[in-house]
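Dear H.,

Thanks for agreeing to be a second pair of eyes. The structure we're designing against is below in token form, covering all 64 positions.
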């Protein structure tokens, strides 16, 4: 399952990057306009970022 997700992310890396930038932009806008919403979104976005980082580290092949 992790391999399929990793392959999909590699094939569509521009889309993944754009979605990440969109999420970051929405969070910045939320903090600017509605600070309580930005505070509520902080931990779910942090958890999502850490989960993607862990998946990237797990699936990255190590050089021989």
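And this is the sequence the design step returned. I haven't edited it by hand at all.
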């Amino acid at each position: 399952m992790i391999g399929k997700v990793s392959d999909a992310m590699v094939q569509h890396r521009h889309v993944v990057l754009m979605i990440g930038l969109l999420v970051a932009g929405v969070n910045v806008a939320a903090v600017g306009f509605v600070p309580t919403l930005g505070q509520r979104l902080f931990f779910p976005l942090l958890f999502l970022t850490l989960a993607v980082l862990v998946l990237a580290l797990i699936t990255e092949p190590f050089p021989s």
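Two observations from my side: The first helix runs from residue 2 to 11. The two ends are 24 Å apart (CA to CA).

Warmly,
E.
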